C-alpha cells in the first residue's frame, strides 16, 4: 500500500465501517490528504464537508477526528466524490475531487456488474468477477499517489461557523422540544419541520 496508514489502522477503519470496499478506500485516502495538509482535529480544530453520503465518510470520521456529533463533519450530499477540509485556526483549506479519469474503465465495469448483482440476476461468474474487480479498484486507490486520485483546488465555500447552542422551543403541533434554528412559523404557531410539512400544503 502507498498510504501512510498502517495495515492495523486500516483494519480498524474497516471494522468501524463494517466492510471493506472501494468507497471506503477513497475516504481513507481523502483523510490522508487532509492529515498531510492540515493535521488532525486533536491538534488543530478541523471541519470536513462531504458532498456524498458514501462509505468513505466513515473513514473520514474515524481518521480525521471530525464527526457529525461535534458539528465539524457536515454532509452536503450532492452525489459527488468531493471533500472540503478547513483548519479553523488559520482558515487554511482545500477541496479534493475524485479524479474521474483515474481507473475509469475499471470503475465503469465495476458499476455495471454491481447493478446486475444488486438486481439479483447475476450469474455465478459475474458475481465472482464483480468481487475481483472491486478488490482491484480498492487496491488501486490504496496503491496510487494522492496526486493521481484527487484533483485538489481551493474551497468553493466559506468555512462553516462553529456549532452553537441555541434555545429550545416547544412545537405547537406535537409538543416536542426542538432547536430554535430548525423551527418553522405557520398561522401563528411554532412548529417542528415534520408538523410544518403536514400543514403547509401547496395543493
Average pLDDT rating: 93
- So, CATH architecture of the domain at 7-102 and 144-153? 2-Layer Sandwich
**SS content category:** alpha+beta
Give the overall silhouette.
globular
**Helix percent band:** 40-55%
Radius of gyration: 21 Å
Chain-wise SSE layout:
Blueprint: H1 7-17, H2 22-38, E1 46-50, H3 56-64, E2 73-75, E3 82-87, E4 93-98, H4 104-118, H5 124-143, H6 146-149, E5 150-153, E6 168-170, E7 177-179, E8 184-186, E9 189-191, H7 193-199
Short description:
The protein is an alpha+beta fold and 203 residues long. The protein contains seven helices and nine strands; from the N terminus they run ααβαβββαααβββββα. Among the domains are: 7-102 and 144-153, 60s Ribosomal Protein L30, Chain: A (2-Layer Sandwich), CATH 3.30.1330.130; 168-199, no CATH class.
Q: Can you give keywords for this protein?
A:
single chain, 60s Ribosomal Protein L30, Chain: A
Report what the structure shows.
The chain is α+β, with helices and mostly antiparallel strands and 203 residues long. Among the domains are: 7-102 and 144-153, 60s Ribosomal Protein L30, Chain: A (2-Layer Sandwich), CATH 3.30.1330.130; 168-199, no CATH class. Helices cover 41% and strands 18% of the residues. It contains 7 helices and 9 strands. The strands form 3 sheets. It has a 5-stranded mixed sheet. A two-stranded antiparallel sheet has the order 6-7. The chain has a two-stranded antiparallel ribbon with strand order 8-9. The longest helix is centred in the middle third of the chain and has 20 residues, at 124-143.
